[in-house]
Amino acid sequence: MSRRRLLVRSAAVLSVLFGGLGTDVAHATTSTALYVDDAAAGCSDTGPGSQAEPFCQIQPAADSAGPGDTVHVARNTTRYAPVTIGSAGTADAPVTFVSAPGDNPAATATVRVLAGTSTPAMTFSGARYVDVSGFSLSSSGPSTLVFSLSQHISYDKGSVSTAQAADGTGGTIAVDGSSSGIALTRLQIAPESGGPAFASAAGAQDITLADDTTPLGGGISATGTTGIHLAGDTIVTTCGNGISLTDGTSGSVENTVVRPDTTASCSDTGTPAEITVDAASAPQVTADYNAVNPLSTGTDYDWAGTAYGTSQAFLTGTGQGAHDLDQTDVTLSTQNTPLIDSADADAPGELATDLHGAQRVDDPLVADTGTGAGDYDRGATEVQDPLSLGIAGRSSADVYVGVPVTFTAGFVNPWSDTLDGYRYTFGFGDGTTATSTTRSVTHTYTQPTTSTEIYATVTVYRPDGTTMGTEVSLYLAVRPLPALTGSLNCRSASFQIAPSLPDTAGCAFTAAGFSGYPITSDLISFGDGSKAVSATGSKGVVRHTYAAAGTYTVTQRLTDSDGRTATDTTLTTVGPSYVATGPSRVLDTRKGTGAAKRQVGPGGVVRLKVLGVGGVPASGVTAVTLNVTDTGATASSYVTVYPDGTRRPTASDLDFTAGRTNPNLVTVRVGAGGYVDLYNAHGHVDLIADVQGYFTTRAGSGSSSSDNRMSNLAPVTPTRVLDTRYGTGAAKGKVASGSTTTVTLPKEGRGSGTVGAVLDVTVTGGTGSGVVTVYCGSRPSTSNLNYRAGQTVSNLVVTKVCTGGKIRLYNSGGHVHLIADLQGLYTNSVVDGTSPLGSPFVPADPTRFLDTRNGTGAPAGRLGANRTLTVKVAGTHGVPADATAVLVNLTGVAPTTATHLTAYGAGTLPNVYDDNLSAGETRPVLAVIPLDAKGSLHIHNANGSLDIVADLEGYIG
Question: Measured over all CA atoms, what is the biggest interatomic distance in the chain, rounded to whole angstroms?
């Protein structure tokens, strides 16, 4: 065996060395121990270099060291200055530099030397017979470790790197042409500058690189070098040039893995080969047992000027590489790769241990295909026996007083090592232990844990009595026997049923108890008289489709084998899903659309067909949303819209005076035969109705190809999104006749799950009469709001929402200010992280719950200026206690001056309007009004005094 390999193998101790500028200290005597510790309080570069008074830097120690001396350098967190080593040992008494304990506690700590300039971190100049081990070098120059005029130097265990800012012209490790006998082993070489990892000049001799790795590329380059041997290296390349031997270089390349940096981008042509040996060197170089894996655009070998794309082609053309691998998975982090147990153990320069000092081991899962010992792996790392401790397991996740629990030692053992003779000591965390020759022990706890949890441990002893280690279980709590418990939740967003399944509830249940008393029955009933469902498992989700919209009580009843019972209840609200349509005109008595071509007289009723017309399906529809408009009235009157075939309610939907045109949005249940009725109280009037959408109970009926049109309503805090008086949402100033204003909704209205918006739209200060149409896409011929010159008027609008949360408002008349307040969003089943989750809407027959004229719902009396009326709604009139919002037809009656009403739920008064009224006017408007925590809504009057009337049309669960 060569002296070079003997030096490498004898340097297995973790050690580090550094040398620097000369000092005037006495030369160390033969076999003297010198010490370097820059963290020691009494260190001195002019001192004796003793353990009591060490040198501060490596240079004076290097200058003082002679044959047989050992320099001990402390592994500190600081970095030592660059060093030049010119020490001269002998073959039998080399100068040795080793690392010693310092203030860096890390197990992998090394002595660190930093050159902040272009100076190398370590230079061997005229040095002979020097062994260095266990340190890391870095430099801002082109080379970090330099050998000049030096012979018989071994450098083992550590790292060598150049800074990214270095010029990259030299090798990170550079050997000049006058140096020989250089052994570089078990090193991580990182040329961050982009230059070569290693470079030897013409004339260099007898160089070994074994079990080294170049994780950042750079490659190995030897020019005119005699006897360079690469064995068991892992070389990462950037677009080729992993190994380059030129100008008459001789030597060998064996057991080496050359693989590309897969993040690099290389050209399709002209990429250098991974291994290049020129014509002058090829007769003097042997290559075998390597693994070459270039990028798909690269070349394996360039040998004597000929490129070879595969190892087979290389073997055929040169007779070399008979055992080479190419285009393989060269990662050693997984089992069963072709690199395992396939190397040449007798390759020149190969080591008995790998990059990390691990011994060569045989992998029983892989056939031995190498030579020599047969269990050497290719590359710098040897796959080790993966036998290791796992996590101590237990037979039950829950641990109870008086119930036996079994603890088991866990192993990771893919090589199926025998565990015969192993011994196990279990600690149970309660002060007791048990020792066993088997991997499992059963223990019964007698007391529950109190303020803290405990954990069990298993200490594993090998057959020779040495400790393999201690594994720890997950923390556990010892509890008294648990009670039988169950829970129901029909409200969480994580399992709420999509709008595409209307009138359907999803309820999550849990069932828990003591495993020794298994649950024998878990029945869930849905409060509608249907048969209870038997649930299984400790948790899950059950679905149920109801015959009618509403709020229901869901009940869970549990029974276990001990006869214990438990009950839990919760509420669930289901309703139809909303589908936006056109809008489309389904009634116009001026033209005979949907009814006779004539005005509706006093007490007259228009029976309007709504199913199967205007984009509304012929079946499966429970309610429709209509924009109802009166025009040409001969007297003050009101209109009530209600299901055909039912008794007309006392509530009104549209109040108007003679000669005016007024719209109002109405949501009405569909009556017998698919009809709704419109009743006119006084005088004659023309009625117009535009269908905006419908509520369906039919699953998937929103579209022939998708359910995404089906939606539920998500009330939002009333928010002003447009006010041209102040430049909110659009340019400041009145909009012109024939103009279209585009509004972008707030963030929650821009998601892909938002399909519709509910807005209160107001016009004011118009210079002429006109209409406003709110839409998405192509502008329809219908309108949402009619106004006269100077009039302030509002109406609730339900509109589709275009991509990005955009809607458009078209003005047909004179110049006018536009105001829009967002009240809610219709959202589908798409979960986009932006659109709010909608809730089912339950339509109701119009029910008057507030009338200050006669004391209904509040004390009789007009509401004064800047006063707020609070009305409890939840828990009354069929609205459940946990409703979140209500749909209300809100009417202001005969104010003493122009005013506006604002309806809201929790919080302070928002800067929005629901109903705008002129002095003496009676005007209704539909509004989505959130409820506060007490189930109440609030109505605020801005000016003068007036009466308030409110009719319930439905609620949101």
Answer: 127
